[in-house]
Amino acid sequence: MAGWISSAQQKRDHNGQRNICAADGHPGTEADPLVKTNDGWRVHLSDTTNPRSGFYGQQQEG
After folding, report:
1. Residue spans of alpha helices (H) in the chain
2. Exposed, middle or buried by CB within 10 Å (0-12, 13-18, 19+), for 30?
3. What's the total number of domains in the chain?
4. Quick check: 35 and 61 in contact, CB under 8 A?
5. Could you report the per-residue pLDDT of 3-60, keeping only the tens digit for each?
6. Burial 4-28 (b: 16+ CB within 10 A, else e)
7. Which one, of 28, 22, 33, 25, lies nearest residue 55 by Cα?
8. Residue 2 has what pLDDT?
9. Which of 9, 33, 41, 52 has its Cα between 20 and 30 A from that of 17?
């Protein structure tokens, strides 16, 4: 998972929350993995594809 990670997300990663969604606190799954947002957070893929989510359209490329 290449790309930019915010310093706040880096702290979450180092505290054992790398696979925990920053938006809802639930783990990523095979069916709904975590992706990085444009501002460097890890959230569920569905958060970036759901028009009702504040993260809609915010998935980093690559």
Report:
1. 7-12, 45-49
2. exposed
3. 1
4. no
5. 899 999 999 999 999 999 999 999 999 999 999 999 999 999 999 999 999 999 999 9
6. ebeeebeebeeeeebebbbbeeeeb
7. 22
8. 73
9. 52
Dihedral (C-alpha) 58, 24, 51, 38: value to the nearest 10 degrees?
0
Cα–Cα distance measured from residue 53 to residue 11, given in angstroms and rounded to the nearest whole number: 24
Rg (CA), the chain: 11
Domain that holds residue 3: 1-62
* Residue 38 DSSP one-character state: T
Instruction: Confirm if 27 and 20 have CB atoms less than 8 A apart.
Output: yes
